[in-house]
Design brief:
Number of strands of chain B: 0
Strand content of chain A: 25-35%
Distance between the termini of chain B: 21 Å
Shape of chain A: globular
Order of helices and strands of chain A: HHHHEEEEEEEEEEEEH
Number of helices of chain A: 5
Distance between the termini of chain A: 56 Å
Helix content of chain A: 25-40%
Largest sheet of chain B: none
Strand content of chain B: under 5%
CATH superfamily of the domain at 169-250 in chain A: Rod shape-determining protein MreC, domain 2
Radius of gyration of chain A: 24 Å
Oligomer: heterodimer
Helix content of chain B: 55-70%
Chain lengths: 280, 171
């Protein structure tokens, strides 16, 4: 027993060092997988408010550009309003139709903190579960998809962006309908890559990449990017597809969070698929 | 000036510079500037190592909390604090550290500062990028980030000292 105490006394400094390292690194590595604690993230109340003050100062830097973009989007939306169409057939159609059920709702939000240079980049939004944000909801901007909600607190939430190593969103190459998984290599915030594309299919350069909408997180057909380069993967019949994002994540400000009203329905249906049996 | 007040002001200033300016910069090529180890470097020589590490832990956690890194800065800063006395012992001046007040570049001389602070900062940066990427097959990328960021961080630390620390009078 005395030896043990003597041991602790002798290596006290080193043991404290090891303990602090273990706390720090375990926080880091567990957060990548499971967002457990909210006290030490930018979703917490204190640092969330500090970042909001900073954003209040810096948000005006791009104000005129953002206004232009919003105005352009408004024009586009207004053009698709029923009021801007001429009725050709009198009273034969109705807007509030039972043929159309609302599936997606969009909640507007502002990005108050973001990074693009790290290996795993998270964005902080100024809304939280009070506004109905839940883990696993999709986030997109006017020009392209942004990411998936990773963690929420009362008034803030953290988005796991597409600039994260294992983001794995299912995307589709537009004219041929081929789909693969979206990845990011951790270096260039303007380019991502798509894996799982077989090399016997011809893909045109600059063809459009959109979301597939398979998991119900994103609706089908949201912009993601354009194909920039195709490179053969050595030893596999696959293309390594380099894609340029349509959104520039370095200047991202206004985003929309997607609420899928039919998510539970899709999940229960898909949960009923029988598991693949092991080889018999 | 009161010592505690001086160090508190440095703490707040370096925290703000790191969290709200340097962490928001995107220079490219994987460069990330980190100047907050300067605070740990400038703490008094006779401060106990345990206190040093606890201060480093607290500061790292604060920076992590606002930059969404959850423990990365903490881990590298605690390592920096732990290694500070060891490296200082290797490069200790002839008559020890008793007469010196703090480890800034004017007090201790450029040569000493390059060896001690440069070495510690290199270990800090390397550890930070190694833990961030955490894959041995991308060791080249880790080295690229470290080698590109290190001179810039060091130059910025030099600049901060040149601007805000008064030089001792000519002896």
């Amino acid at each position: 027993m005395r030896n043990l105490i003597a041991f602790f006394r002798r290596f006290r400094v080193f043991l404290i060092f090891v303990a602090l390292q273990v706390i720090a690194l375990s926080t880091y590595f567990t957060f990548l997988e499971f967002p457990r604690s909210q006290y030490l993230t930018s979703a917490s109340y204190v640092s969330g408010s500090v970042l909001e003050v900073r954003n209040d100062i810096t948000k005006h830097f791009n104000l005129s550009y953002n206004n232009d973009m919003l105005q352009r989007e408004n024009t586009w939306l207004r053009q698709h309003q029923p009021t801007s169409f001429q009725k050709l057939q009198g009273h034969t159609f109705k807007i509030d139709d039972t043929l159309f059920h609302q599936q997606y709702l969009f909640i507007p939000a502002t990005v108050i903190n973001s990074t693009v240079t790290k290996l795993n980049n998270y964005f902080t939004l100024n809304i939280g579960y009070r506004q109905g944000i839940k883990r696993g909801m999709g986030v997109f901007s006017e020009k392209g998809i942004v990411g998936i909600i990773h963690n929420t607190s009362e008034h803030f939430s953290v988005v796991k962006s597409v600039l994260t190593k294992n983001i794995n969103i299912d995307v589709m190459i537009e004219p041929i309908g081929l789909f693969g998984l979206l990845k990011w290599d951790g270096a260039d915030p303007r380019r991502g890559s798509i894996t799982g594309i077989s090399n016997d299919l011809k893909i045109k350069k600059w063809s459009k990449v959109v979301t597939r909408g398979g998991s119900g997180i994103f609706p089908r057909g949201l912009n993601v990017g354009h194909i920039e380069k195709l490179r053969p993967v050595e030893g596999k019949p696959l293309w390594d597809v380099v894609m340029r994002y349509t959104e520039d994540y370095r200047t991202l400000q206004r985003v929309y969070v997607i609420k899928n009203l039919m998510q539970a329905e899709q999940d229960t249906l898909e949960a009923a698929i029988p598991e693949d049996k092991e080889e018999e | 000036m009161n010592e505690i007040l001086k160090h508190s002001i440095r703490f707040v200033a370096l925290f703000i510079v790191q969290a709200f300016i340097l962490n928001q910069l995107e220079i490219g090529w994987g460069i990330q500037l980190m100047v907050y180890p300067l605070f740990i470097m400038l703490l008094p020589f006779d401060l106990g190592l345990i206190y040093l590490m606890l201060i480093a832990f607290g500061m790292g956690m604060l920076i992590d909390a606002v930059s969404n890194t959850y423990g990365l800065h903490t881990s590298s800063l605690v390592l920096f604090a732990y290694l500070r006395p060891i490296i200082m012992k290797i490069f200790s001046p002839r008559d020890g550290y008793e007469k010196m007040r703090e480890g800034n570049i004017f007090e201790m001389g450029t040569r000493w500062f390059v060896y001690v602070f440069g070495g510690l900062l290199a270990i800090h940066h390397f550890w930070f990028f190694l833990m961030e990427i955490f894959r041995l097959d991308e060791l080249f990328f880790v080295l690229q980030k470290t080698i590109l960021s290190l001179p810039l961080s060091y130059a910025l630390c030099y600049l901060l000292q040149a601007l805000f620390i008064s030089k001792p009078k000519e002896r």
